[in-house]
Amino acid sequence: MSDRHTSRTALGTAYMRAAHQLLDAPPRILEDPLAVTVLGPAAMQRINDTAEDFQTPERRALRAHVVLRSRFAEDRLAAAVRRGVTQYIILGAGFDTFALRQPVWAHPLRILEVDHTGTQATKRSQLAEAGLALPENADFATIDFEHESLCDGLRRYQVSLDEPTFFSWLGVTMYLKEDAIDAVLRSVASFPAGSEIVLTFAPPPGESPSPFDQRAASLGEPWVSYFAPDALEAKLRDSGFCSVEFLTPAEAEARYFRQRPQDLPVPPRTNIVCAIR
Hints:
By secondary structure, this protein is α/β, with parallel strands linked by helices. The chain has one domain (8-276): Vaccinia Virus protein VP39 (Rossmann fold, 3-Layer(aba) Sandwich). Helices cover 44% and strands 12% of the residues. It contains eleven helices and seven strands. It has helices at 8-23, 34-39, 41-49, 57-82, 98-101, 117-129, 150-156, 178-189, 211-218, 229-239, 249-257, and strands at residues 87-91, 110-114, 138-141, 165-169, 196-200, 243-246, 272-276. It has a seven-stranded mixed sheet with strand order 3-2-1-4-5-7-6, sandwiched between helices. It is globular and about 50 Å long.
């Protein structure tokens, strides 16, 4: 994707988070009212007018995955802050709203949203139209994972490489070549002990691509990297992480789906993992 253009999958993800607020029953997996605010009143009207389109099995499954991964990452971030993490780096932030709705416990954090300039320009414009601004502890950064070291890029934005740091990397690895993924993981693993990353990945497609894979390709942003959980665990440990934990469907159901209405399906495949230095 060119830096000059907004990622269509990032925008689609924002619509999934907004639809969760408007169409799904409480208690929601992810409470994110600003997802609707950032997209604006026209988007809200579009979602309400085409509600049936958002309730197809494919859209409900995609929405469940999108809100689950954000909720899991934010829960892990809260735990990391309690053990002393001081920086939060959102890799491929898209239209994420955590910095705007951050709870009190996040106020001491340095928050950096990393993405392409095109997507960030659109987000800045939408924030301005909504009368919103990033708080003082948050900022934007542009780092191209395939052409620049993550550590070198973070240094340009005065991120301390000597402080324990939390990284979220959601919905990105499948669009990158494996050597770029390896480089990012090595950079994250170079941060001090206690640092953590939560990332999503695409399991091997088997005989046919998943609907998510096909949809991304139709938007001009095809997937290029896939990992089986055991292979990804080996990669994470080889990169320098000492603890690796996957969010399995059974754990996701027990933690996030069991105590709410059954309007969203539990994602059937393991594709979210956290790893700690």
